[in-house]
Please model this.
Amino acid sequence: MSKRKRERTCVAVVDDDPDFRGLLCRWLEPRFRALAFENAEDFLESEDDASQADVVITDVRMDGMNGFRLCERIRKHPLHAHRPVLMLTGVPPVDGLLRGQRVGASAYLVKPIERKELLGQLDRLLDPLAF
Model:
């Protein structure tokens, strides 16, 4: 078994709401290793931590750079472009889903979400046979 397979999958959580960010991180543990980022800028500026992420979960509506812009930046970044991006939002599904697709989001969930729904979506995004 490869070293990569033995390590827990790393998920970056980018959300400016500390309570929701904390909830997502608790939902992810102990199955995943969660890295929490207060905003998009923090994620992009932390090359060492961000480069460990196997998948990125981001809120759409954040102060500063929003999730759509973050997704665009991830898709253009040589270290991050291959990573799945799961967008979470309360933005009306049709508007947000279409814009999310345009910027390269891998998946899109509308709040409120449940733990089972989040983990199921992560399983699909991390399954190499799903694409």
